[in-house]
Structures are given as structure tokens and as C-alpha cells.
Amino acid sequence: xxxxxxxxxxxxxxxxxxxxxxxxxxxxxxxxxxxxxxxxxxxxxxxxxxxxxxxxxxxxxxxxxxxxxxxxxxxxxxxxxxxxxxxxxxxxxxxxxxxxxxxxxxxxxxxxxxxxxxxxxxxxxxxxxxxxxxxxxxxxxxxxxxxxxxxxxxxxxxxxxxxxxxxxxxxx
Length: 172
What we know:
alpha/beta; Rossmann fold
């Protein structure tokens, strides 16, 4: 496990998992939200984001958490040796977006740039939930199925599966 892509719908705990995995493995962690957005929530120019993303993919080791955009996501998935797909029930994703909103009133959400607008980000997450569930989640499931023979693939379908995966990594 040297190049790890962590992905899934909004509010699934990708950033939290990525942070804990980075701590357990000492792999460098890159949160795409912190690359794609500036402190305060402004978006960096798309070409600049793509340039930074391409540079990350050339590194020997990384954990990359998040989506970015369609083209960078699929490029990242092809380069990664390990895919971790967080595929929780839609209701769980929605509840965890709400939990992140409430917690975000006191501390910056994990993986978000400093001073990000929590309400704007939460509204965007709610908008993305159903679209991702309908369009990206089936594509992610197909990617996971197609990649089983060529990559290490983890398809985490419950909070318990996430905990068990992390406990297994920590005990290695």
C-alpha cells in the first residue's frame, strides 16, 4: 500500500479515515478539499488544481482523500495501488453531513481548508448526496469490481467495517 485513493459520497468519513490511516502507515496525506479550495472557501483556478493533482500522482507514496473533479478522480484511481471506497447507506451519509455541520460550528471539519464556510459547504454536501448516490456510486461500485484483480480494494459498507479496517491496520 503506497498509493491510496479514498473516495465515496459526501459525509462518509473519508477525511477522518484518511487521517487515521496516514497516522498508522506514515504515508503522506493530501486532502483534495484543501488543494481545490483556499482558506475561506474560495476555489483555486481549475488548471492550478489539475497541475497540483498531477504532481501528487507522480510521487512515490500518498494517501489522497476526496473527489476533486471527474477527470482527476479517474486518473487517480488508475494510478493508485489501493482503492478504499466508503459506501455507506445514503441515510448514514446524510446524518454524518449533519453531524459535521454541528461539529463544524466549534471546530474546522477534518480535511477542510481553514475558515471554510460551514453552512455553504453543508448545503453543497446535501445537494451532492443524491446526485452522487444516483450517478457516481454505481460507477464507483463498478470500478471496485473491475479493480479487484489488479489492485488492493476495500469496499467499506458500514461504520463497523471502517473501524475494523483501521483496527487491522493499527495492529500490523
